[in-house]
Amino acid sequence: MLSGALLPVFMLASGALVGAVGGRRSAVVPAALVVAVFMAERVMDPMRAEVGRALWRQVDQHLTQQLMRAMSEPAGLAHVEDPVIRDKVIQAQGGLTDMTPGQAAYYLPQVVYTWVQGLGSLVIVAAFRWWLPALLAAGYLLTFRISERHWHQVTVVLYGRTEALRRSYYLRTVALGPAPAKEVRIFGLADWLVQRYRQGWLAVMHDIWRTRREGWGRAAWATVALGSAELLAVWTVVHAGVVGHLSLARAVATVQAVLAAAVLSQYQDPHWLLSECGRALDRLDEVEEATADHRPDETASADPRPGQAVGWRPVVGGRAPASGLPARAIRFEQVGFVYPGRTERVFDHLDLEVPAGRSLAIVGENGAGKTTLVKLLCRLYDPDEGRITVDGVDLRDLRPDGPDGWHRRVAAIFQDFVQYEVSAYDNVAFGALHAANDAAAVADAISLAGADQIVSRLGAGWDTPLSRQFSSGTQLSGGEWQRLALARALFAVRAGGAGVLILDEPTAALDVRGEAEVYERFLELTQGATTIVISHRFSTVRRAQHIVVLDGGRVVEAGSHDQLLAAGGRYAVMYRLQAERFGVGGHA
Asked: Is 210 exposed, middle or buried, given 0-12, 13-18 or 19+ CB atoms closer than 10 A?
């Protein structure tokens, strides 16, 4: 604001200087004022830029934290996978325009500067003729609104193509990221990725460019009208000066003010960025509102909100504590489930009992619903029909998060477990953050998972970053990553108080010897925990105390390994087919 006020002061000072020189009076005071204003502006410019940079950093950091909290606090997964919410997330980040809200904050001082400058200039003009500022302001407002409306229409088109741009940006990520780099090169995908990215991006840009070409006629007429008003204003000032109705000093200052006030008519990049910031804040509000029903301790309705994807069912937090559960059994009672946005049923009146403190193996063909069952048990989704009970308490009535929440009672290695690009220690400690400082328990979990030799080979031990993208980091093999993931789950059981251990293909990346090492100590690793194992390897499955076979959304067989073999059903067929690969005699 101070910087913006300097220009009107400069106009008055320069006018006074011209008047003093023309009238052969002392010019010391106006000259000194001109120099002082000039020097002040030179000081204010870097200060204004630094204020903008500080705002940029702080706004982006704050909004990113809000967005991370809004997306990560809800207990379920549906909102994370919902395309409507994904669109809003990228819009809230400024991902469509590559302009973050913080960049808009950077330009905020410049916008304030220009508005103060323009309004101050109009005050100088008003001192000459009261009606001139009204005439000019009308022209400024018309021109500004036309430009603003035009760019709003362009932005609406851009936002309407969010999903298409997300697809293009995904291709860009594939081409630039290290994870898919091997296949991109082996399969020669580089040119295809570049071409598809270009085609998708250009398809969106053609719509935007077409919109940009529209409406320029109105803008041209508005510019002509504004130019005429400005010419009239300048002519009025000059005429008054020539006929002697206005002093030379005031005429010089007023003409400058007429020209400087024109900044109020210009809809520039900073104005567009501020409007983008407003849209980003709106999208952030929408994300927070849409995910509010998913957060723990909320009792709001689970009905979909306006704009929410069809089939999106919130995981609403209950209030009952889950401490010490399960003590007797987990039961799936007539459970039915369909993924949001899909029509085919994964489960249809599924009944299953998981006794507490025992091991259960789940087998079935691909698509039978094994991993979905785990997601329901972890309460990442809720069933559409029936219920899941823990010691007779509906899982929906239990608190999902918190020290006494259900998630604290569950430890899981998912088939697509995360390879965190942090230290080896953190990769294990993530299993129970509340016990992360217990280094002895972390070391114990690493040893139980057979990962101690892996850690000992790392340059900085368990403080080594597990990514080659860091100068001191390293990369692990698939089997080594799986051992760390197993250690993470064991840490959650041993130090975090988890009572349910879920292993979804826990040894898929291990060789035969590594698998044997893990399962020779299976009872030791899972002692006291309710263990659920999902695996295609029957050498793993056979060690469980109880085995169920899923098919068609239901349990079709159940029993011990010996019982199921004796029954000669589907389990026996699958087991013998796999056993034949290892040798005659049916032993895997």
From this structure: exposed
Q: Percent of the chain having pLDDT more than 90? A: 63
State the alpha helices, DSSP H only, in 73-82. Answer: 78-81
Per-residue model confidence (pLDDT) at position 583: 58
Question: What is the domain partition of the chain in residue ranges?
Answer: 2-160+215-287, 329-567
Q: Looking at residue 220, what is its pLDDT? A: 87
Top CATH class, 329-567: alpha beta
Fold of 2-160+215-287: ABC transporter transmembrane region fold (1.20.1560)
Kindly tell me if the per-residue pLDDT of 294 is higher than 70. no
Lookup result for tokens 């068609």? 552
Mean pLDDT of the chain: 88
- What is the length of the chain? 588
* pLDDT tens digits, 341-366: 788 999 999 999 999 999 999 999 98
Q: Which pLDDT value is given to residue 319?
A: 86
pTM of the model: 0.78
The string of DSSP letters for 94-121 reads: TTTTT--HHHHHHHHHHHHHHHHHHHHH
How far is the C-alpha of 571 from the C-alpha of 576, rounded, in Å?
Answer: 9
Backbone φ and ψ of 178, nearest 5°:
-75, -30
- Residue 306, classed as helix, strand or coil, is coil
Q: How many other CB atoms sit within 10 Å of the CB of residue 111?
A: 16
